[in-house]
């Protein structure tokens, strides 16, 4: 059974008339949307980075802030929407700027929990760059908490993952936090 057929069945099971004019193409559109929203499963880190790792003598912290992210919680398959901040301390190599957003998107476009998303991003950047430290902070609003359940509209969640110097060196961690807030 295809995703489109599954959506057709879900729409019918919730009590809607699948033959209604406004719903005729909904299963096809919903299937296409789901394929887009989960396209991260069809990507791998090597393709995403695409060789954009460059020799550099830079050894001071690099921060990329406010990377928009859209993901879907694995518990309810409802969106969570937010921003990701990434910092790393280069160790002979720097990553092309756009690749940070592409890495965030690759992992966000999978069924996720925010805690794991932050960890996957941090570990990938650490592995790719060989940096001496990586920090990832994600701030997001979860529709599973806003639209259903406790229905708290102004709630948000912040997660962080710190690796290497970002974890072990308090001044590096503090520098990242200050730069992210500026």
Describe this structure in words.
- It contains 8 helices and 7 strands; from the N terminus they run αααββββαβαβαβαα.
- By secondary structure, it is of the alpha+beta class.
- The longest helix is centred in the C-terminal third of the chain and has 16 residues, at 114-129.
- The chain is elongated, with a radius of gyration of 19 Å.
- The N and C termini lie far apart (50 Å).
Strand content: 25-35%
Number of domains: 2
Low-pLDDT parts are none
Helix content: 40-55%
CATH superfamily descriptor of the largest domain: GTP cyclohydrolase I, C-terminal domain/NADPH-dependent 7-cyano-7-deazaguanine reductase, N-terminal domain
Instruction: Please give the radius of gyration in angstroms.
Output: 19 Å
**CATH architectural label of the largest domain:** 2-Layer Sandwich
Order of helices and strands: HHHEEEEHEHEHEHH
What's the CATH class of the largest domain, please? Alpha Beta
Short description:
The chain has 182 residues and is α+β, with helices and mostly antiparallel strands. It has eight helices and seven strands; from the N terminus they run αααββββαβαβαβαα.
